[in-house]
Amino acid sequence: MAIMTAQEIMELIPNRYPICYIDYVDELIPEKKITATKNVTINESFFRGHFPHNPVMPGVLIIETLAQAASILILKSPRFYKKTAYLGAIHKAKFRRMVRPGDVLKLNVTMKKVRSSMGIVETQALIDNKVACSAELIFIVADRDKKI
C-alpha cells in the first residue's frame, strides 16, 4: 500500500515528466529511512536511444531515481520542508545488475548524517531483493527560490 502517490511526490519535489521517476512511496520514517518504488517500463523515453535492441536503464538515471527518493526523505523532515534538495556528490557508486523494462526497482534510502543545510544518505536500488545499484549521496538543501 502506497503511503505517498506520484501526485503527492510531485507536490514535494520539483521533478516533472519526463524525469520524475518515483511511482510511489512504500514506507517513510521521517529523518530515518524511506522505501519507494519505480516501475521500469518499455515506454521510458531513454530506452529509445540507450541500446534500443538491448534496452538497459542508464546508470546515471538509476542514481537520479535514488536521489529523488532521497529528496523525498530529506524534504519530509520538518527542518527542510518546502525547500529543495540538490545532489552535491555521489560516493561509492556500484552497479551490480542491469535494470531492464519490466523490472520493479525498490529504492531504499537511509539517512546517515544531517547538518544545517546538508544531508548524507546511503542508498540501494533492488530488483527482486538483489542489489542493482548502491551509492552514498550527499545533498545540499536550500530555499526553493535560492540559487546555489
UniProtKB/TrEMBL annotation:
Principal location class: cytoplasm
Subcellular location: Cytoplasm
Top-tier EC class: lyase
Keyword tags: Cytoplasm, Lipid A biosynthesis, Lipid biosynthesis, Lipid metabolism, Lyase
Entry's EC annotation: 4.2.1.59
Domain of life: Bacteria
Active site: 50
Swiss-Prot/TrEMBL catalytic activity: a (3R)-hydroxyacyl-[ACP] = a (2E)-enoyl-[ACP] + H2O
GO MF entry, a single one: (3R)-hydroxyacyl-[acyl-carrier-protein] dehydratase activity
Keyword Lipid biosynthesis appears in the UniProt entry: yes
Function (record text): Involved in unsaturated fatty acids biosynthesis. Catalyzes the dehydration of short chain beta-hydroxyacyl-ACPs and long chain saturated and unsaturated beta-hydroxyacyl-ACPs.
Family to which this protein belongs: Belongs to the thioester dehydratase family. FabZ subfamily.
Matching PANTHER family: 3-HYDROXYACYL-[ACYL-CARRIER-PROTEIN] DEHYDRATASE (PTHR30272)
Stated name of the protein: 3-hydroxyacyl-[acyl-carrier-protein] dehydratase FabZ
Species annotation: Limosilactobacillus agrestis
